[in-house]
Amino acid sequence: MTTMTAGGLPVDGATLHYQVRGQGPLLLLIPGGTGGAAAFDEIADGLAAEYTVATYDPRGLGRSTLDDPEAEQHVAEHAGDALRLLDLLSPDRPARVFGTSSGAIAALHLLTARPERVARLVAHEPPVVEVLPDAAEHRALIARVRETFRTQGLMPAMAVFAAGLKKDGDAAEPKTEPELRLPPQAAARAEQTMAGLPYFVGRIVPSFMSYAPDVRRLGELTDRLVLACGEDSRGELPYRPAALLAERFGTPLLHFPGGHTGLTTHPAEFGERLAEALRA
């Protein structure tokens, strides 16, 4: 196994817990949801054969503590955290970046705000629903999630959120395909995932899914932007923004194995596809 070192980075309003393994040009992996650095445990060692791989817990999740636990969260602030890590670990040359889900939203903001610091970005299913023609419907979904969380609690809010992400006409029940039989390491992370859900639903979802990216600026940066989706996500809400942007920019849409959580359900194949995308 590749040797890993860990550190703590003070940033404005928080302290980030990060991990570094491997050597070579920097690759920063930005997780989505509540996964934190551990979400990349099953692919980071393989990538560390080519890169210095940095993973971290986003502020407010896992071991990255907030100075004010009740602080509101903002995409620009999370992108700034990623920039601080780039400046710490690769101060003299731009880095490769991978982000998934909410982490991909932060990564898109990083790219538009500081493009000179990003050599290549692979953005996997960023749910930037404001770019969609039916964005108003998704604003209503976010409002329903917030109100349900406030009045009924976490699990009812999660049910509303999950139903809103599905394809039109899909039943609300969870899928039972084999891909959702999680690998042992992923199953062991369930406790951390549950612990972070109130913060994610209450503060990350409303802020991040209300974020409108600078589409014009992204269109000027397609030489270093790879938009990606899951093979099994077609038609679902997290798939649609990246697909729409790729079509608008006239760039290929890269497909990863699995669905929105393909990193968890298909880690080996996901890591291989990411390595290919970073080399291209």
UniProtKB/TrEMBL annotation:
- Return the broad EC class: hydrolase
Annotated AB hydrolase-1 domain residues: 25-136
- As recorded in UniProt, its EC number(s) are 3.-.-.-
Keyword Calcium (UniProt): no
Q: Does the keyword Hydrolase apply?
A: yes
Source organism, top-level taxon: Bacteria
> What keywords appear on the UniProt entry?
Hydrolase
Its BP terms in the Gene Ontology are:
glycerolipid catabolic process
Record GO terms (molecular function): triacylglycerol lipase activity
| Name assigned to this protein | Putative hydrolase
Please name the taxonomic classification of the source. Bacteria, Bacillati, Actinomycetota, Actinomycetes, Streptosporangiales
